[in-house]
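Problem 12. The chain below contains 594 residues. Write out its predicted structure in token notation.
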Amino acid sequence: MAYLDAELYKAAVEGNINTLKKYTETSELSVTPKRNTILHIHLISPSKRSVTFVKEVLAMHPKLLLQININGDTPLHIAARYGHFDIAKVLIEQAKPQVKDLESGVGAVKQMLRMRNRKKDTALHEAARNNHLKVVKLLTHQDPHFAYMGNDSEETPLYLAAVKGYLYVVIELLHTCTSVAFGGPSGKTALHAAVMSGNRGIVLEILQKKKQLAVEVDENGWTPLHYAAYGHGKFFGTCVIVQRLLEHDKSAAYIVDIERKRTALHMAACQGNVRIMREIIAKCPDCCELTDSRGWNVVHYAVISKSDEALQLLLRNSSLIDLISEKDVNGNTPLHLLAVSRPYMPLFSFDGEDDLNAFYKQNISSRDNLIADLLQPKEKVLQWMEDLGKGPMGKISINKKGSWEVQDLRKGPKEAKVVAEFEKSKDSFLVVSGLVATVTFAAAFTLPGGYKTDEQGVEQGTAILTKNASFDAFVISDSIAMVLSTASVFIHFIVMLLGYQEKYWWLIRSALLFIMFAMGAMVIAFTTGTYAVLSPNLGLAVATCLIGLSFFIYLFYMLKRLYRKHLQNAYLEAALRISKLAATLRLSKPLLSH
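Solution.
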């Protein structure tokens, strides 16, 4: 088995050239079990890399410049991966004097730049993936005319930079490389990647370079507009991205996917994303007439989003009123879905714009007859909705009560699970919040130390300990606890009215944080109030405060234990993912390279 002498290994890690010279005859041939040479070891090591050491090594052993390890990485791959600009520059300078490869006719510099490791990554792939702009500039200027194609995951350097939102790397690749490749995995392009990252700057740069990418579809038939409408990327940037995509090619709004023949407007309506719906309808109003493979129009999708705002946008548009009566292939209109999905019919469905009222007067005799008629095929409608399908859109799930939810597969079950658990324990939560609010409210009117009663004038009835610093802290902390607990109770009632849904997770999270901070403020109010009245007996006052503040000691201990457990679970999960990935892709890359 190959091995490296311990002293030589240490010299490579530390960049000790004097020790290295003792091994002039063996250092070139000595490698680790993963075939890392002394140059690989020096570049991978966490200690400071030495340009002088690299030059000396290459002067003694020029062959190490292109020697690869078990992963196919040259020293340039590693320098690009870790962003060692000075080292990468030295490696390129050392390659320039070498002769051309007679078979390929390519100089040593370009040969080194184009070498691929076992994952088919070039040094430029590594630099772009890790956002090392200076290294990217160095590599692209050395070989600007070479088309850097995809690796074994079909990712090009441009795709890698775009999907991670590295704007300046994308600009460098687009402006310097004359034959830049735009492809990516599963038929996606760099524009798909830019939309998924939510970086509107990258979207604009790519569209200016190659605007036809706006209508390119991946293997699922999704255009970049589909991804933007479905809500990929950052919320505040997505609306601008939709605007730019439609400005470059409006036909993207009419392209349907392969699985269900859904347009980008269907995607936006399913998510209840009103801003994006408004943009698409403003620029392409007739795309609202398109239906998917089951005959669902945009109003069907707005109904399953459970967003009143999305429904209002469509139903208050006079040109779209008739869509509410359009039947799918099973004869279900959006009204059928609306009736079976909600315990009530939204008021704006009956009371609103004149066009909507006129529609109901013409087609519906009464509200009661409408609901009775719509509720008859409930089981069939629910079964039809459950067949919405999986894939990137999500799926419909129906609980035992017959109500349904759209499960967004991008988010995972975490938030939905927390919301469900909150609904189960809502009574206990309300009791705790109400108790804290009651106690702190009562404490505000039974102040420690009492009130002044034997004086006349404006000070009669005021607190005796007004000028005491501990008393001031008591009043402030008690007020904070009362306000936060009351806000928590208020949020509880709001969520009860709106329904315990995943989209209101931010409200539930706020309520949980409020009650936690309220309990902490209540403990502080107790200790400061107690200290204010017991301060003449300093020993008793300090002892009482320590007992009260022990709550925070236990809280810190509990959070530390939970955090440690969380880290252990995270490490275990990461290890399992890495092992699964290695088994799938047959990776042999050392962990240090990540």
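Discussion. The chain is about 55% helix and 0% strand. Students who got a different answer should revisit the alignment rule from Section 12.3.
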